[in-house]
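Posting for a labmate who doesn't have an account.
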Amino acid sequence: MSATALPFEPIAVDLRDYVTFDLDGATGRRVFATDVLAVDLVCMEPGQLIQARTFATADAIYTVLGGRTWIVTDDAEVTLEPLQSLLVPAGVPHGLRNDSVDPLILQVVVSPPDEAPPANFGPSGLDANEALSQDDPQAPRRPPLVERLRRTLGG
C-alpha cells in the first residue's frame, strides 16, 4: 500500500436487498456512491417509464439484470435483454420504458455522480420536456422523444 492510499475493506452487498417495486411508478435505490461514480438499482413494473432526462456532464451505463427495457433517444430506440448493457454519453437526452409483461431490474452506473438523482426515479421527477431542456432554457422541446417514450404505453 502506498503512503497516500487509504485502507480498503471490501464489503459485499446483496442486490436483492435493493429490489423494490411500486405500482405507482419506477423506483430507484442507491447501492454505492463515491466522488467518482454512483451505482443505483432501478425497478419498473410492466408499463412504467422513466421520463426523458439529460445528464449534461455525466455518462450513464444501463445494465438489465432481469426483464427487458427500451432505452429511447432522439436518434434511436434500443431494446436491452438480461445481461445486456448500454452506455449513454453525457448530453444525450434519453428515457426508459418497460413495455414487457415482466418486471424490470436495472443497474445504473453514473459517472460523475453529481447529476444522478440518488433515488428519485419515480413519476414525481422532472417532466419529459423539462428534463430535456434543463441545461439550456432556450433549448427547443423534443416532442418526438417524448412521443416515442409513451408510444406503446397509451399515454
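Reply:
Got it, the C-alpha cells are right above this. The first helix runs from residue 128 to 133.
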